[in-house]
From TrEMBL:
Summary of the function given for this chain in its UniProt record: DNA polymerase III is a complex, multichain enzyme responsible for most of the replicative synthesis in bacteria. This DNA polymerase also exhibits 3' to 5' exonuclease activity.
Coiled-coil residue windows: none
Pfam families for this protein: DNA_pol3_delta2, DNA_pol3_gamma3, DNA_pol3_tau_5, DNAX_ATPase_lid
Protein name: DNA polymerase III subunit gamma/tau
Enzyme Commission numbers on file: 2.7.7.7
Family in the record: Belongs to the DnaX/STICHEL family.
Species: Dokdonella immobilis
Low complexity biased stretches: 385-404
Length: 554
């Protein structure tokens, strides 16, 4: 006897055997047991979730010799013929290959005849959205008022393509995508019945790869059993799927959190030995970050590997998780543009190191950074100008920001600031725009400073005010970078704190905009007062377009 694939062998034959579609089963069972059976049903959903299977069970329930019933016997002649696919009164039509109006006309003509053996003649039209417009129009009348012995069961993966006139004539059931847990449970049941040895991690990887489709999952299961020589081992499954073990992805993230560049890229090399799909590795990394964020921000969230992630979740800042996640999904999108998948993957990891708080400013190797500190955060020590020695100056840490973050920046000459007397607060407030010019700020840091109002200096803390509309500039990495740049310009270590101010407060950017508007108005008034310009206006009936006036820059 030839081998029968698992997806066909384990296809449900009763409503009770269906997985994940309880809402559909309940409605159909009540309709069958209560005798309230509509003449047309539409089943929608992604591939491999049970559309055709439910339609066949429903046809069996309608025609079972002990029916109509929600629990067909499965042993009578009609039930066995439907299970074998040879029941003459169940007509399965593939709309993808029978799209034309002639096919529908033949269906309509045959629908007038009574069933040969069963109680109902059932038309199961799969991928019904593939029918032509003319075919749909020809079907409408029969679909609305079919003979009493005819039932239509329509199935589609793309209901948006169905005419509204068809949708309005059917009872519609949306089938759900199956969760990895539901697919995993069915795989365990099947493997136990088939007496196949398996590792839990192997079937967990297969259930995730199924992407909500039980049929896809069972097809992958067949392939994995063949690949592993009759057994399911995690290493074989990961090799077949081009994925990596979750433990290896955790090692990557631990190295990222610890700023251990050498360990990070050593692990990348070990992963590359298995020739994985690095897009899948990025997916696993993004999924890991998602689970960590759930554990951090949603107490009591049910996470499969929650206990294993607890220590890592305590070490990494929630904002850093968001940053890493955004970089991972952006890299996943851009991976086809990279020279090779590995290059794209490595650049994503380097980007995480570079943009992580305290991770990239100053250009030091990430692997040189020290362990995370939950107490004080050392800063680059000030030194005498021209002196070889340095006198360290520590500042108090903001423990809420310092907790679970890498906090030591390496001492390098370019990062050190010169020792100088404390800043005089009134003087700094009066010369805030000049300080920004002296610091030569550019890019996002410059935009942050230009839209900020200096409120004062409390010790080593620079208090900046910002309007609500501009608070998106104030990300923690940019605030830290701004403190370092301004500290270098003032000759003292600084930390920046943002406070919200009223819209009336004027920032350097507002001052520049006001001055620019004044110069533009002055230029506009000057043009109007110019006799030559006035002569042109009078002679030709011209007018000055205000938006085109630009003052000459000195």
């Amino acid at each position: 006897m030839s081998y029968q694939v698992l997806a066909r062998k384990w296809r449900p034959r009763q409503f009770s055997e269906l997985v994940g579609q309880e809402h559909v089963v309940r409605a159909l069972s009540h309709a069958l047991d209560g005798g309230r059976i509509h003449h047309a049903f539409l089943f929608t959903g992604t591939r491999g979730v049970g559309k055709t299977t439910i339609a066949r069970i429903f046809a069996k329930s309608l025609n079972c010799e002990k029916g109509p019933t929600s629990q067909p016997c499965g042993v009578c002649g009609i039930c066995t013929e439907i299970d074998a696919g040879r029941f003459v009164d169940l007509l399965e039509i593939d709309a993808a290959s029978n799209t034309g109006i002639d096919n529908v006309r033949e269906l309509i003509d045959n629908a007038q005849y009574t069933p040969s053996r069963g109680r109902h003649k059932v038309y199961l039209i799969d991928e019904v959205h593939m029918l032509s417009k003319a075919a749909f129009n020809a079907l409408l009348k029969t679909l609305e008022e079919p003979p009493a012995h005819v039932k239509f069961l329509l199935a589609t993966t793309d209901p948006q393509k169905l005419p509204i006139t068809v949708l309005s004539r059917c009872i519609k059931f949306n089938l759900k995508r199956l969760t990895p847990e539901q697919i995993l449970g069915q795989m365990r049941h099947i493997l136990g019945a088939e007496a196949v040895e398996f590792e839990d991690e192997a079937i967990e990887a297969l259930s995730r790869a199924a992407d909500g489709s039980l049929r896809d999952g069972l097809s992958l299961l067949d392939q994995a059993i063949a690949h592993g020589g009759g057994a399911l081992r995690a290493a074989d499954v990961h090799s077949m799927l081009g994925t990596v073990e979750r433990g290896r992805v955790r090692v990557l993230l631990e190295a990222l959190v610890g700023r251990e560049a050498e360990s990070l890229f050593a692990e990348v090399g070990r992963i590359a030995e298995f020739a994985p799909d690095f897009g899948q590795v990025l997916d696993e990394l993004a999924g890991l970050l998602h689970r960590i964020q759930l554990q951090q921000l949603m107490a009591g969230a049910a996470i499969a590997d929650g206990p294993e992630l607890a220590e890592l979740a305590a070490r990494i800042d929630p904002r850093e998780v968001q940053l890493f996640y955004q970089i991972a999904i952006t890299a996943r999108r851009d991976l086809p543009l990279a020279p090779t998948q590995r290059v794209g993957f490595e650049m994503a990891l380097l980007r995480m190191l570079a943009f992580a708080p305290n991770g990239g400013e100053g250009g030091a190797a990430p692997g040189d950074r020290g362990p995370a500190s939950t107490g004080t955060r050392p800063v680059p020590p000030p030194i005498q100008r021209g002196a070889a020695g340095a006198s360290p100056a520590a500042r108090p840490a903001d423990t809420a920001e310092a907790a679970s973050r890498v906090s030591r920046s390496p001492e390098r000459p370019a990062d050190r600031v010169a020792e100088a007397p404390p800043v005089d607060t009134p003087l700094v407030i009066e010369d805030w725009p000049g300080l920004l010019e002296r610091a030569e700020l550019g890019g996002p840091v410059g935009q942050l400073a230009l839209h900020a109002v200096l409120l004062g200096v409390d010790g080593n803390v620079l208090r900046l005010g910002m309007k609500a509309a501009h608070e998106h500039f104030a990300s923690p990495p940019l605030l830290e970078m701004l403190g370092q740049r301004l500290g270098a310009a003032l000759g003292r270590p600084l930390r920046v704190r943002i406070e919200r101010v009223a819209d009336a407060a004027e920032s350097p950017a507002d001052s520049r905009a006001r001055a620019s508007a004044a110069r533009r108005q002055q230029a506009h008034d000057g043009l109007h007062a110019d006799p030559a310009v006035q002569s042109l206006i009078d002679t030709f009936g011209a007018r000055i377009i205000s938006d085109s006036v630009r003052p000459l820059e000195n």
